[in-house]
Design brief:
By secondary structure, this protein is mainly α. The protein has 2 domains: about 110 residues, Winged helix-like DNA-binding domain superfamily/Winged helix DNA-binding domain (Arc Repressor Mutant, subunit A), CATH 1.10.10.10; about 30 residues. The chain has 8 helices and 2 strands.
Protein backbone atom coordinates (compact mmCIF):
# COMPACT_ATOMS: atom_id res chain seq x y z
CA UNK A 1 0.00 0.00 0.00
CA UNK A 2 2.81 2.43 0.90
CA UNK A 3 4.61 1.54 -2.36
CA UNK A 4 1.44 2.29 -4.33
CA UNK A 5 0.99 5.59 -2.51
CA UNK A 6 4.67 6.43 -3.13
CA UNK A 7 4.23 5.76 -6.87
CA UNK A 8 1.14 7.95 -7.03
CA UNK A 9 2.99 10.74 -5.22
CA UNK A 10 5.86 10.41 -7.71
CA UNK A 11 3.40 10.53 -10.63
CA UNK A 12 1.68 13.54 -9.10
CA UNK A 13 5.02 15.33 -8.69
CA UNK A 14 5.93 14.57 -12.32
CA UNK A 15 2.57 15.88 -13.52
CA UNK A 16 2.90 19.02 -11.39
CA UNK A 17 6.40 19.68 -12.72
CA UNK A 18 5.06 19.45 -16.28
CA UNK A 19 1.88 21.47 -15.72
CA UNK A 20 1.45 24.79 -17.44
CA UNK A 21 0.34 26.46 -14.21
CA UNK A 22 3.50 25.24 -12.46
CA UNK A 23 5.71 26.54 -15.26
CA UNK A 24 3.98 29.91 -15.34
CA UNK A 25 4.20 30.21 -11.56
CA UNK A 26 7.94 29.49 -11.56
CA UNK A 27 8.59 31.76 -14.52
CA UNK A 28 6.71 34.57 -12.78
CA UNK A 29 8.60 34.02 -9.54
CA UNK A 30 12.00 33.91 -11.25
CA UNK A 31 11.18 37.02 -13.27
CA UNK A 32 10.11 38.92 -10.13
CA UNK A 33 13.26 37.88 -8.23
CA UNK A 34 15.50 38.78 -11.17
CA UNK A 35 13.90 42.21 -11.57
CA UNK A 36 14.19 42.82 -7.82
CA UNK A 37 17.90 41.94 -7.90
CA UNK A 38 18.59 44.02 -10.99
CA UNK A 39 16.78 47.06 -9.59
CA UNK A 40 18.29 46.78 -6.09
CA UNK A 41 21.26 49.03 -6.97
CA UNK A 42 18.68 51.73 -7.76
CA UNK A 43 17.11 51.16 -4.33
CA UNK A 44 13.92 49.89 -5.98
CA UNK A 45 12.01 46.64 -6.17
CA UNK A 46 10.81 45.31 -9.50
CA UNK A 47 7.26 46.35 -8.69
CA UNK A 48 8.35 49.86 -7.69
CA UNK A 49 10.30 50.15 -10.94
CA UNK A 50 7.28 48.96 -12.92
CA UNK A 51 5.08 51.53 -11.20
CA UNK A 52 7.56 54.31 -11.95
CA UNK A 53 7.81 53.25 -15.61
CA UNK A 54 4.02 53.10 -15.94
CA UNK A 55 3.54 56.48 -14.25
CA UNK A 56 6.05 58.09 -16.63
CA UNK A 57 4.52 56.45 -19.69
CA UNK A 58 0.94 57.34 -18.77
CA UNK A 59 0.45 60.93 -17.60
CA UNK A 60 -2.50 61.63 -15.30
CA UNK A 61 -2.69 57.97 -14.23
CA UNK A 62 -4.64 57.18 -11.08
CA UNK A 63 -3.68 54.77 -8.31
CA UNK A 64 -6.55 52.48 -9.39
CA UNK A 65 -5.23 52.37 -12.96
CA UNK A 66 -1.74 51.64 -11.69
CA UNK A 67 -3.04 48.89 -9.40
CA UNK A 68 -4.80 47.23 -12.30
CA UNK A 69 -1.79 47.39 -14.61
CA UNK A 70 0.55 46.08 -11.90
CA UNK A 71 -1.77 43.29 -10.77
CA UNK A 72 -2.16 44.52 -7.21
CA UNK A 73 -5.01 45.77 -5.07
CA UNK A 74 -5.73 49.18 -3.55
CA UNK A 75 -3.84 48.41 -0.35
CA UNK A 76 -0.82 47.17 -2.32
CA UNK A 77 -0.71 50.21 -4.59
CA UNK A 78 -1.03 52.51 -1.57
CA UNK A 79 2.00 50.86 0.06
CA UNK A 80 4.00 51.09 -3.20
CA UNK A 81 3.12 54.76 -3.61
CA UNK A 82 3.96 55.49 0.02
CA UNK A 83 7.42 53.97 -0.46
CA UNK A 84 8.06 55.81 -3.72
CA UNK A 85 6.87 59.09 -2.20
CA UNK A 86 9.19 58.56 0.76
CA UNK A 87 12.04 58.19 -1.76
CA UNK A 88 10.85 61.41 -3.46
CA UNK A 89 10.30 59.58 -6.77
CA UNK A 90 6.56 60.26 -7.18
CA UNK A 91 3.94 62.61 -5.80
CA UNK A 92 0.19 62.34 -5.52
CA UNK A 93 -1.65 65.38 -6.79
CA UNK A 94 -5.13 66.47 -7.80
CA UNK A 95 -5.89 65.89 -11.47
CA UNK A 96 -6.06 69.02 -13.62
CA UNK A 97 -8.99 67.53 -15.58
CA UNK A 98 -11.00 66.19 -12.63
CA UNK A 99 -10.50 67.79 -9.23
CA UNK A 100 -12.06 64.75 -7.56
CA UNK A 101 -9.32 62.45 -8.85
CA UNK A 102 -5.83 61.90 -7.48
CA UNK A 103 -3.12 61.19 -10.04
CA UNK A 104 0.45 60.04 -9.72
CA UNK A 105 3.22 62.19 -11.08
CA UNK A 106 6.87 61.17 -11.22
CA UNK A 107 9.27 63.70 -9.74
CA UNK A 108 12.41 64.90 -11.50
CA UNK A 109 14.36 62.29 -9.51
CA UNK A 110 11.88 59.62 -10.57
CA UNK A 111 12.13 60.59 -14.23
CA UNK A 112 15.93 60.52 -13.98
CA UNK A 113 15.77 56.77 -13.16
CA UNK A 114 13.75 55.87 -16.27
CA UNK A 115 16.72 55.29 -18.63
CA UNK A 116 18.24 52.90 -16.07
CA UNK A 117 14.93 51.10 -15.52
CA UNK A 118 14.51 50.66 -19.27
CA UNK A 119 18.00 49.16 -19.50
CA UNK A 120 17.20 46.72 -16.68
CA UNK A 121 13.90 45.64 -18.24
CA UNK A 122 15.47 45.25 -21.68
CA UNK A 123 18.34 43.19 -20.25
CA UNK A 124 16.05 40.89 -18.28
CA UNK A 125 13.73 40.52 -21.28
CA UNK A 126 16.65 39.76 -23.57
CA UNK A 127 17.88 37.00 -21.26
CA UNK A 128 14.36 35.65 -20.90
CA UNK A 129 13.89 35.40 -24.67
CA UNK A 130 17.38 34.06 -25.41
CA UNK A 131 17.16 31.32 -28.02
CA UNK A 132 13.75 32.32 -29.36
CA UNK A 133 13.50 32.99 -33.09
CA UNK A 134 12.07 36.35 -34.13
CA UNK A 135 9.02 34.67 -35.67
CA UNK A 136 8.27 32.89 -32.37
CA UNK A 137 7.85 36.12 -30.40
CA UNK A 138 4.47 37.20 -31.85
CA UNK A 139 3.15 33.68 -31.23
CA UNK A 140 4.41 33.74 -27.64
CA UNK A 141 2.86 37.18 -27.10
CA UNK A 142 -0.48 36.02 -28.53
CA UNK A 143 -0.53 32.92 -26.32
CA UNK A 144 0.35 34.90 -23.21
CA UNK A 145 -2.34 37.48 -24.02
CA UNK A 146 -4.90 34.69 -24.40
CA UNK A 147 -3.92 33.23 -21.04
CA UNK A 148 -4.18 36.65 -19.43
CA UNK A 149 -7.56 37.27 -21.09
CA UNK A 150 -8.80 33.92 -19.75
CA UNK A 151 -7.71 34.78 -16.21
CA UNK A 152 -9.22 38.26 -16.40
CA UNK A 153 -12.50 36.90 -17.78
CA UNK A 154 -12.71 34.32 -14.99
CA UNK A 155 -11.94 37.04 -12.45
CA UNK A 156 -14.70 39.28 -13.82
CA UNK A 157 -17.22 36.45 -13.90
CA UNK A 158 -16.53 35.16 -10.40
CA UNK A 159 -14.90 38.07 -8.63
CA UNK A 160 -11.93 35.81 -7.89
CA UNK A 161 -9.50 33.99 -10.15
CA UNK A 162 -9.96 30.56 -8.61
CA UNK A 163 -11.78 29.11 -5.66
CA UNK A 164 -9.49 28.59 -2.68
CA UNK A 165 -8.22 25.04 -2.34
CA UNK A 166 -10.21 23.10 0.21
CA UNK A 167 -8.26 20.25 1.77
CA UNK A 168 -10.19 17.02 1.55
CA UNK A 169 -9.29 14.10 3.74
CA UNK A 170 -9.55 10.53 2.60
CA UNK A 171 -12.80 10.22 4.58
CA UNK A 172 -14.30 13.20 2.73
CA UNK A 173 -13.31 11.74 -0.62
CA UNK A 174 -14.67 8.28 0.24
CA UNK A 175 -17.96 9.84 1.35
CA UNK A 176 -18.16 11.54 -2.07
CA UNK A 177 -17.35 8.25 -3.79
CA UNK A 178 -13.85 9.27 -4.92
CA UNK A 179 -10.49 7.77 -4.14
CA UNK A 180 -7.82 9.56 -2.13
Amino acid sequence: MNELRSQSVDALQTNLDRSIAHLIFHLSRHLAVTLDRQMAPLNLTGQQGALLLRACATPETTPTQLASSLGTDNAGITRLLDRLEAKALVVRRVSVTDRRAIVIEPTTAGRALIPYLILVVRGVTSRLLNGFAADELPVLQALLRRLLDNVETAEQETGIVERPFVHQTGANLEAEGRES
